TrEMBL record:
It comes from the Bacteria. The keyword NADP does not apply. It holds the Pfam family Exo_endo_phos. PANTHER family: ENDONUCLEASE/EXONUCLEASE/PHOSPHATASE FAMILY PROTEIN (AFU_ORTHOLOGUE AFUA_3G09210), ENDONUCLEASE_EXONUCLEASE_PHOSPHATASE FAMILY PROTEIN (AFU_ORTHOLOGUE AFUA_3G09210). Keywords: Endonuclease, Hydrolase, Nuclease. It comes from Rhizobium loti. This is Endonuclease. SUPFAM superfamilies: DNase I-like. GO terms for molecular function: endonuclease activity. The keyword Nuclease applies.
Amino acid sequence: MSLRLATFNVENLMNRFDFSGYRNQLNEDRTLALFDIQSEAEYKMLEQARAIAQSDDTRQLSALAIAATRADIICMQEVDNIEALKAFEYGYLFKMVGQGYRQKYTTSGNDSRGIDVAVMMRNETAQGQPIEFVRMTSHAYVTYEQFGLHTPELAALGSQANERIFRRDCLEVDITVGGLPLTLYLVHFKSMGPARNGLDGREATMPVRMAEALAVRRIIEERFGGDHAADKRWAICGDMNDYRQRVKIAGDDVDGYRFEVVDENQSCIDVLTAGGFCENVVERRPEMNRWTFYHTRGPEERHLCQLDYILLSRGLAAKNATAVPDIIRNGQPWRTIFPAGQEVERFPRAGWDRPKASDHCPVAITLDMA
């Protein structure tokens, strides 16, 4: 009995307009930045037109990427609410995969934009085994103080002890597959952000992600018992905004690109995998071929890295020791630089930078659940 499990940051799947760019340039779309907009009313009118015009192509590509995973269950990040998820599944995904993801669950997390994690599930696997929802538990309200995770580093960032740990949520979803239990932990950790306090964006925000990872591990250990948790059936799925390695890119398309794998000294992923608690199964792929995200701030700062994860419990990973996950990269924009031999055929109408399925690539794996 097998289950196809996937994760995907679908990026701003919203059913409302975000007008915050009028007062915060960091949120302003670059198209509108080209124009001299005289009033907030004019800005709102233009933003509505821009968002509607862009969204159809974007969501077609997002749906193609999800369809390509062939997933029975897909964990998602950056979903606005259940109505947005329903509209996307019915209007786009259902038209591509037929019998759709009838079961959809999300909740309100802590993101200031209102987006959060979500899960969509079929009623049964491709092999005909029933997938049944048992319960859903949000951990969005857990504070640093409650878990004893407030540190001087967090204080230096301005975080108070009574603040919530998760920037979105750690959503615990219990299901059964063919009558067998499985628990999913849906996460979307703190983004890296701009440089701060003399540190680059990754280092400056690392204390938050470290606390989030420690909190996820504690939630799992308290649920299943510290001595036995690693051997139970669970998986952590989501965008953790961190990596243990990156592939640095040098050169250009005229003289050729050069790729170098660089190991990082610290990563929040290490907190979760320490002691064999769980396994990052994407690391079963070759080092140069683990990336799910292309980062660039111009020719001097370009790399490929893994931001999107399926972490299997030690017990589940051992049972699926030969399973290697797939990474769906066909929805990447043309600007993404692929190492030699990894090029894929892009989905129709993918643009140089947009439209695109997402900056992130879906990750999918087939698990033996028997």
